[in-house]
Amino acid sequence: MPRLELVTGDITTERVDAIVNAANSGLLGGGGVDGAIHRAGGPAILEECRALRATTLPDGLPTGEAVATGAGRLSAKWVIHAVGPVWPGLGRLADERRALLRSAYRRSLEVARDLGAASVAFPAISAGIYGWPADDAAVVALTTSAEAEQAPERVRFVLFSARMHDTFADAAERLGLDVVVLGDRDPR
Ligand code: ADP
User: Fold this and answer.
1) Is this model's pTM higher than 0.85 or not?
2) Is 111 contained in some domain?
3) Looking at the chain, which terminus has fewer C-beta neighbours within 10 angstroms, N or C?
4) For ligand 1, what atom is nearest to the CA of residue 132?
5) Torsion-angle region of residue 63: left (phi > 0), alpha (psi -120 to 50) or beta?
6) In 85-132, which ranges are E strands?
């Protein structure tokens, strides 16, 4: 099981080997964390995404999948673009879509591991514009990472608000998972 870490902050400034982007299927940029990563990382990331669309991914990246590019000006070596599902509202569809959210985490961890990354940072995939309820998003993120067989040694969740950080911390406690809460002074 990887070491799980929680921190509040902006994922674009994290010093880890790979950061995960909550991308959309088109891979050509968007709002939220996607926009922030492309702004901070510069045009090289978008160029690589365009090249993927022109070659291996003409129809874009399916929901639940992940693909890596370089990280441009970011301190990370790689950006792993993962596509989470849109929250469908409560009901039967929620279970199907939850499997896709799990897959987005699992595939990102596998891609990170295959690249040789020792550390990877995730935002709360689907929990912004895609509308996934924060507590459920936290449970899926934490349990999928804790159970992953193919994963880097360190998996960090970088939460953009104190509220989302608390949601992840509460979920971890309820699930009985050991997580390391990083403060501002922790070496990263
Ligand atoms: P999605 O479309 O998958 O919901 P969003 O980017 O809208 O993706 O939101 C995912 C999560 O990322 C939200 O909790 C949002 O607050 C958060 N977020 C937005 N910008 C950043 C950032 N720079 N660093 C970390 N998390 C961010």
Assistant:
1) yes
2) yes
3) N
4) 4
5) beta
6) 119-122
Tell me how many domains the chain contains. 1
With respect to residue 188, please indicate whether it lies within any of the assigned structural domains. Answer: no
CATH number at residue 119: 3.40.220.10
For residue 168, the enclosing domain spans 3-181
Please say whether the beta carbons of 85 and 130 come within 8 A: yes
Ligand 1 centre distance from Cα of residue 122 (Å): 10
Instruction: Give yes or no for residue 186 having a pLDDT over 90.
Output: no
186 found inside a domain: no
Has residue 187 been placed in a domain?
A: no
Pairing of strands 78-83, 66-70: antiparallel
CA of 158 to the centre of ligand 1 (A): 10
Please report the atom of ligand 1 found closest to the CA of residue 32: 6
Q: How far is the CA of 132 from the centre of ligand 1 (A)?
A: 11
Over residues 166-176, the pLDDT tens digits come to: 999 999 999 99
pLDDT tens per residue, range 30-39: 999 999 999 9
What are the pLDDT digits (tens) for 114-135?
999 999 999 999 999 999 999 9
